[in-house]
Design goal:
about 270 residues, alpha+beta, GTP Cyclohydrolase I, domain 2, 2 domains, two-stranded antiparallel ribbon, 5 helices, single chain, eight-stranded mixed sheet
Length: about 270
């Protein structure tokens, strides 16, 4: 089975004693996308990727000496399946006792295993992006907007609105995005980055909409796709980019990004909470 309930999430799992690529648990994207009104045979209305950052990667060199590293993994938005996070953690831990001739062999092994699981080529590189605090112009926060809040779910797109008489280009951010794992109920925290060109988006309404995810149960990738589609349909931007930088859990964090085809990928950056 390939539903979230069949994964290792929320279950006691023994620490892997050896390399085991079968620990990876793919979840088909089609089910959640159909709930958003996206037909399986139709072209997707967005481009994007799911960028994972791994902070706890280790293996043995050819002489048995432990090696440690960090890595960035990038799964394409149009892969048939996403990779469930706990299974990814267990898989990476299964490399701890595996010997490799060199570091390149490690990257090739991980890329091959993840690509087979996701059903599309996954890019893998050592290292992590720089911290966002060192980057200028990383968006304008809307979290200081004065408003009353009493709606914490389900996500309510009716809050979204835009002024057709005032066109602009903005990069808006909020650190108030929270949703819950659909299997364990554990909270997932993220900062949201929304870049757009088009009618000026009402900031109070946007913030109310973001807060309405607070009790929503959904995987990270699915939440970002819902936000993208809701903003696209309700606010009518000519160009749109939505990225969520999720807080690290279990040595991993994920940064899903969805955008219209004309928008460039956002600069790879890490937040203070990652």
């Amino acid at each position: 089975m390939t539903t979230a309930q069949d994964s290792s999430l929320g279950r006691e799992v023994a620490y892997p004693k050896g390399y085991d690529p079968t620990l990876l648990f793919p979840i088909p994207r089609a089910g959640a996308r159909s709930e958003l009104g996206l037909a399986a045979a139709a072209p997707l209305p967005f481009t994007g990727h799911d960028r994972w950052m791994a902070y706890e990667l280790s293996w043995l060199d050819a002489r048995g000496k432990p090696q440690v590293a960090t890595a960035t993994l990038q799964v394409p938005h149009d892969s048939p399946s996403l990779i469930e996070s706990k299974s990814l953690k267990l898989y990476l831990n299964s490399l701890n006792g595996e010997r490799f001739e060199d570091a390149r062999a490690v990257l090739e092994r991980i890329a091959g295993d993840l690509s087979r699981s996701a059903g599309a080529p996954v890019a893998v590189a050592f290292g992590l992006p720089p911290m966002a605090e060192d980057a200028a112009g990383d968006g304008e926060s809307i979290d200081a907007v004065e408003a009353d809040f009493d709606d914490y779910g389900p996500p309510n797109a009716a809050y979204l609105d835009a002024d057709d008489a005032a066109h602009t280009e903005e990069h808006l951010t909020s650190a108030l995005l929270k949703s819950n794992c659909p299997v364990t109920g554990q909270p997932d925290w993220a900062s949201l980055h929304l870049r757009y060109r088009g009618p000026r988006i009402d900031r109070a309404g946007l913030l109310r909409y973001i807060v309405s995810f607070r009790e929503h149960a959904g995987f990270h990738e699915q939440c970002v796709e819902q936000i993208f589609l809701d903003v696209l349909h309700r606010c009518r931007p000519a160009s749109l980019s939505v990225e969520a930088r999720y807080t690290r859990r279990g040595g991993l964090d994920i940064n899903p990004w969805r955008a219209t085809a004309d928008m460039p990928p956002p600069p790879p950056l890490r937040d203070l909470r990652q």
